[in-house]
Amino acid sequence: MRKIFFSLFWLNVVTWSFAHAAEPEINGQFVQGGMVVGQAQPGSEVRLNGEALKVAESGHFVFGIGRDDTAPVLLAVSTPTGEHWRQSFTIQTRTFDIQRVDGLPQQTVTPDPEVQARIAEDNRKIGQARAVNSDRLDFTGEWIWPAEGRISGVYGSQRILNGEPRAPHWGIDIAAPTGTPVYAPAAGVVRLAEPDLVLSGGTIIVDHGHDIFSSFLHLHAIHVAVGDEIAPGDLIGEIGATGRATGPHLDWRMNWGSTRIDPQLLLPERD
């Protein structure tokens, strides 16, 4: 029996009751990299900083907060009966780690034109997989750890490869031997299952609904196919060191649209 089984837990949760007819219930962290899930009165319109959010028939909505976001978040709700609610939320800032990775072959740091062309094609596939803004509500359910292992990389840290600063790291890295099982951290549908992308190697992308996606990188083996419906705890792959990786690990990343969010904020602390 697997030992990775945690129920949904929100640290520093911010919640409000329906004291006012238009006031939504909100769960999540207003922190850099956070994901906020809300539920308004069915049929309501919800706006984030003036932009309309996708709202389910049940009233559920979700949004992410970027790594470098610092401006307050303004939420506004209008009900079908004409009532209105609005509130501004301060974003909690974080201090991110700097990581150095030396000794990489130079072609993995600065790919040649042929490899760059392959990367562009990989990015096209990834973009196509994330192009669907589905009505799924899997983001409202449980989130569990996808694998056992040592946390070797965290969201928001900046990596310096062979002395050259790179973009921040966008996921959580779990280091474990090749072949270690990878399980679905939440329900969803598989939108991409590719065994050999240039940078990320074996890659799975799962759609959790409303533009929330999980990506699982550097996999040694893939046990799902595009279109598969998965539940929390389902086996989806195995940890590996494929693509641009210095050792076997799972790199789990999450997006709300183009906003990168921190998967670790959805999980309870390990014992």
Write structural notes for this entry.
This protein has a domain at 98-266: Glucose Permease (Domain IIA) (Distorted Sandwich). Strand 14 (188-197) and strand 15 form a beta hairpin. With 271 residues, it is mainly beta. Strands 9, 12, 13, 14, 15, 16, 17, 18, 19 and 20 form a ten-stranded antiparallel beta sheet that branches. It has two helices and 20 strands. It has helices at 106-109, 113-129, and strands at 25-28, 35-39, 45-48, 51-52, 60-64, 73-78, 84-89, 98-101, 150-153, 158-161, 164-168, 171-175, 181-183, 188-197, 201-209, 212-222, 229-230, 235-239, 249-256, 259-261. The longest helix has 17 residues, at 113-129. It is globular, with a radius of gyration of 19 Å.
Put the structure in a nutshell:
With 271 residues, the protein is mainly beta.
Describe the secondary structure blueprint for this structure.
Elements: E1 25-28, E2 35-39, E3 45-48, E4 51-52, E5 60-64, E6 73-78, E7 84-89, E8 98-101, H1 106-109, H2 113-129, E9 150-153, E10 158-161, E11 164-168, E12 171-175, E13 181-183, E14 188-197, E15 201-209, E16 212-222, E17 229-230, E18 235-239, E19 249-256, E20 259-261
Parallel strand pairs: 8-10
Antiparallel strand pairs: 1-2, 2-5, 3-4, 3-6, 6-7, 9-12, 10-11, 12-19, 13-18, 14-15, 14-17, 15-16, 16-18, 16-19, 19-20
Can you tag this structure with a few keywords?
four-stranded antiparallel sheet, 271 residues, disordered N terminus, ten-stranded antiparallel sheet, 39% strand, Glucose Permease (Domain IIA), mainly beta, globular
